[in-house]
Amino acid sequence: MRPVAILISGRGSNMSALIEAAAADGFPAKIALVISNRADAPGLANAQANGIKTLVIESKPFGKDRAGFEKLLQAALDEHKIEVICLAGFMRLFTAEFVQHWYGRMLNIHPSLLPSFPGLDPHGQALRAGVKISGATVHFVIPETDAGPIVMQGAVPVAGDDTAETLAARVLSVEHQIYPQALRLLATDGIKIDGDVTTSTAGVDAEDNLIAPTVI
Ligand code: GRF
Fold it and tell me: What is the predicted pLDDT for the residue at 216?
């Protein structure tokens, strides 16, 4: 089973969804480590309560010295023989070198149907654009923020009276479904990267790689 590290900065609800899924019999990956770049991340206590080893590597003292921070991060990943990284609300950009090193082995989740609405305030962006469907995307990480080959997406309807908060909550429940499924696909070699996209090695995409919205 491939040892996975989850990187967080905050509450870590996606982290918890991954931990819970990975605890089930037969899940093809093991959550070996949770790393936070903030000592006050609420998710740390949750990981510990689930018996997962946690580490804090504060990024703030490094300022713009991204490589300096990544040196410590890489050392911790090496020490724990980590093979896959899942970013789960990790609020720190990486150097292109770090991303390149982990290319094909580092996933991120973003709460929009990428390539729409990357970056900050995706739910506000969705509401301002007036989309009728939004959702979440798990993708391989590339140097460009909130971009990269898409592994899995889940869609939700946008209600006429949605606020960024109500939409975020609806999308979050889909995030918790698709992130474990995406990690499963990666860990079982169920997908391969083909240029800018991924393809299912089973040749069946629709059922495995997306969640469709239902009317609310
Ligand atoms: C999630 O919405 C995730 O998609 C985004 O940041 C948020 C993190 O939430 N990247 P949590 O810490 O997993 O609860």
Answer: 62
Q: Which atom of ligand 1 is nearest to the CA of 110?
A: 4
CA distance 2 to 197: 23
Active site residue 139: no
State the pLDDT at residue 204. Answer: 53
Q: Is 89 near ligand 1, meaning CB less than 6 Å away?
A: yes
Candidate list 80, 101, 110, 176, residue with the active-site label: 110
Q: Cα dihedral angle (164, 172, 118, 38), rounded to 10 degrees? A: 100
- Give pLDDT < 70 ranges for the chain: 203-210, 215-216
Which of 7, 9, 13, 165 is the pocket-test mutation for ligand 1 (most atoms within 8 Å of CB)?
13
SS3 (DSSP) at 157 = strand
Q: What pLDDT does residue 106 have?
A: 98
Residue 213 confidence (pLDDT): 73
**Are 140 and 148 in contact, with CB atoms under 8 Å apart?**
yes
Helices (DSSP H) in 85-216: which residue ranges?
96-101, 122-129, 164-187, 206-209
Helix or strand or coil: residue 24? coil
pLDDT > 90 in the chain, percent: 92
Measured in Å, residue 199 CA sits from the centre of ligand 1 at: 25
